[in-house]
Amino acid sequence: MKKWFSLVALLAVMAMALAGCGSSAPSSTSAGGDASDIKAIKERGVLKVGVKVDVPKFGFKDPQTGKIDGMEIDLARSIAKKILGDENKVEVQAVTAKTRGPLLDNGEVDLVIATFTVTDERKQSYNFSEPYFTDGVALMVKKDSGITSLKDLNGKKIGVAQSATSKKALVDEVNKLGIKVDFLEFGTYPEIKTALDSGRVDCFSVDGAILYGYLDDSTVILPDRYSPQEYGIASKKSNTSLAKLVDDTVAEMQKSGDMDKLIKKWGLK
């Protein structure tokens, strides 16, 4: 009888030990079923998104009304609705090519939806959704410049955005052609357009769809495109559940045709 009681006691101790180990094991989800990164957004009640405010049709701030709108703003609203059930529960913050990464790093924004080109190098630092738009690097010049191709820019100056992929794409092409150009880097796209208008640079280069927002009667966009640029939604590397939700949302919108509707709505094709 004593041996039987001893065995029962031993089994009870082992069960308690196993239960203790289970309770201390880390879990990626909260008691309510949400992963910690998504739970934090729900508790805050708003999705914070870094967007462009100087790219017509993607993310642009109307100087008269102060309203920020565009295809990528609509995309941010779709994700806010997915997480919070309300597309209006989104707070947008202006970013540039140079600031969007740091703002993700320090947690000031949950996502960046800002013509952010997916590259293998950037994937080392951030999660990216599957691409929602594909473009290519293009060249804008003055109509009266006589420039008709990249080769004609030999010995001239090209304006590009800081930390953008445009410069790298063009460097590769310039090397293939065996010509020499000078790159001037600027913080914003309007600054590059101003430099083009004033003659400080001979060419304004960025993705074609972005250039179309700055096209006027004095300029022309050359037909050639360089290095496909695939835009993805970026999130902090540690926010894996948020990244999966975003990627699933983009995939659903692609499959349903909603993404094409957004692209058509903003005249991007």
UniProtKB/TrEMBL annotation:
Location of the Solute-binding protein family 3/N-terminal domain: 46-269
Start and end of every Ionotropic glutamate receptor C-terminal domain? 46-269
From the record, what ranges are coiled-coil?
A: none
Any single biological process term in GO: amino acid transport
What is an example of a GO molecular function annotated in this UniProt entry? ligand-gated monoatomic ion channel activity
Return the InterPro entries for the record. Bact_solute-bind_prot3, Iontro_rcpt_C, Solute-binding_3/MltF_N
Keyword Transport belongs to the record: yes
Look up the domain of life of the source: Bacteria
Q: What are the record keywords, sorted?
A: Signal, Transport
Signal peptide location: 1-19
Any one GO CC term of the record: extracellular region
Q: Return any one Pfam family short name.
A: SBP_bac_3
> What is the similarity comment for this entry?
Belongs to the bacterial solute-binding protein 3 family.
Q: What is this protein called?
A: Amino acid ABC transporter substrate-binding protein, PAAT family
| Classification lineage | Bacteria, Bacillati, Bacillota, Negativicutes, Selenomonadales
